[in-house]
Specification:
By secondary structure, the chain is of the alpha+beta class. It has a single domain, classed as Cyclophilin. The protein contains five helices and nine strands, in the order αββαβββαβββααβ. Strands 3-9-1-2-8-6-7-5-4 form a nine-stranded antiparallel sheet. Strand 4 and strand 5 form a beta hairpin. The radius of gyration is 18 Å and the shape is globular.
């Protein structure tokens, strides 16, 4: 018995249009399946992300040509809602603001080893630029930092900016620096296990005045 071929791409498009017709956003790709095609799409050449935080809204512009692997990963994590309701757990005054460990320990564990290849740095880590944090070569996963100053001294270490804050940098500057490195530190410091084990519950209990990334969303062009 012959069965007609299924055009999955067309079905996905039609379903997406149907959701929009009813004033709803299409369902987000599942973060529980890191290898699924829906969460590993190629990002547009240029896109913007609205980041709503407890200190105000930031507008981030991502350039895929700067760091293709990094841009793709950030694009898909934002689409999936990975960064929603997370904490800026490492904010050092006048240096950087780091985020990117899911507040749900199960999701954080699933993505902790989902590495992407290194991108050779094409842009400098100037103030406002965003790059993935990493501890070892080809070790980038989900953690991102915003440079609060000119951090061009990081260029030679392989930190590759994939985007920059083009609006609301005052919100980044206002993020609480009360806990500094004590509330998580960098990947290389080896002190992040409690964040992965306890998620938001741990951070909210031990470091209640950390600022929040309430929601990140891709803006329609």
């Amino acid at each position: 018995m012959c069965r007609p071929a299924v055009d999955t791409a067309r079905i996905t498009l039609v379903l997406g249009m149907a959701w929009l017709a009813f004033g709803c956003a299409p369902p987000k790709p599942s973060l529980r399946h890191p290898d699924a095609k829906a969460i590993t799409r190629q990002a547009p050449a240029l896109f913007r992300v609205r980041m709503e935080t407890s200190k105000g809204t930031m507008l981030v512009e991502v350039h895929r040509e700067w760091a293709p692997h990094g841009a793709d990963r950030f694009f898909n994590l934002v689409r999936g809602g990975y960064y929603d309701d997370t904490r800026f757990f490492r904010v050092v005054k006048g240096q950087w603001a780091q985020f990117g460990i899911s507040g749900d320990p199960e999701i954080a564990a699933l993505w902790r080893e989902q590495t992407i290849p290194d991108d050779p740095p094409k842009q400098s880590n100037r103030r406002g630029r965003m790059a993935f944090a990493f501890a070892v070569p080809n070790g980038r996963t989900t953690q991102v930092f915003i440079s609060l100053r000119d951090n061009s001294d990081l260029d030679g270490q392989g930190f590759a900016p994939f985007g920059e804050v083009v609006g609301g940098m005052d919100a980044a500057d206002a993020l609480s620096t009360e806990y500094g490195e004590r509330s998580g530190g960098g990947i290389r410091a080896g002190k992040q296990q409690p964040l992965f084990d306890g998620g938001n519950a741990y951070l909210d209990r031990e470091f209640p005045r950390l600022d929040r990334l309430i929601r990140a969303e891709i803006l329609a062009r």
